[in-house]
TrEMBL record:
InterPro entries named in the record: cNMP-bd_dom (IPR000595), cNMP-bd_dom_sf (IPR018490), Env_Response_Regulators (IPR050397), HTH_CRP (IPR012318), RmlC-like_jellyroll (IPR014710), WH-like_DNA-bd_sf (IPR036388), WH_DNA-bd_sf (IPR036390)
Entry keywords, A to Z: DNA-binding, Transcription, Transcription regulation
UniProt entry tagged with the keyword Lipid biosynthesis: no
A Pfam family this chain is assigned to: cNMP_binding
Transcription is among the record's keywords: yes
Name of the protein in its database record: Crp/Fnr family transcriptional regulator
HTH crp-type domain segment(s): 147-222
Domain Cyclic nucleotide-binding: 12-116
Any one Gene Ontology molecular-function term assigned to this protein's record: DNA-binding transcription factor activity
GO cellular component, one term: cytosol
Superkingdom assignment: Bacteria
Amino acid sequence: MNTLWFFNDVNLFKILCPHKFAAYKECHQFDFYKKNDYIYFEDDSANKIFLIEKGKIKIGYYTEDGNEVIKAILTKGEIFGEKALLGEEKRNEFAQSLENETSICAVSVDTLHQLMNDNKTFSLKIYKFIGLKMKKLERRLELLLFKDTKTRLLEFLKELCEEYGYDCKNTGHRVVKHPYTQKDIASLIGTTRPTLNLILNELKEENLIDFSRKEIRLKKIA
């Protein structure tokens, strides 16, 4: 079998789904979700992984006290549910749509294992992606446990810069055009929207950043 999916390093924005190939086209389809629909719940069977063709997905879990903890917010081109590849049988998190027009490509674990067996380079990139994603989540957990809110935000902004940033000519600034709302960012760094807005304005007054709804300009922290 030829190379079926293309990963630009681990940048899943450029991923190709199985429906584009004759061997899988007939038995493959996209699933569509509205805002607040769940793709899966905790304790559901883990027999698929999911690719985001359009929209935004929230990954999280609930504590024993019923509080929601957000682990990640994912956008177009990213995958989730990937721990099924590592032998997870039951989900230990939920996945929920955050937008009204969310389109998901669901792939069975058996199908993905077949593709990985047929293409070793593809297989290595899958495992590299999973490893990097786990390291990123571990780092975020460390920040939540041991760092203050301002530090967590600064670290998150640096992550955004790596993923979405580009140089602004003649200024030395880094411009980040990102897919997150302030509510998303607040959830990911474990704070409230009012607190986030307060710290963003503090950073702006310190001339470290400038920001609008979908763009952040990093002046001295990139």
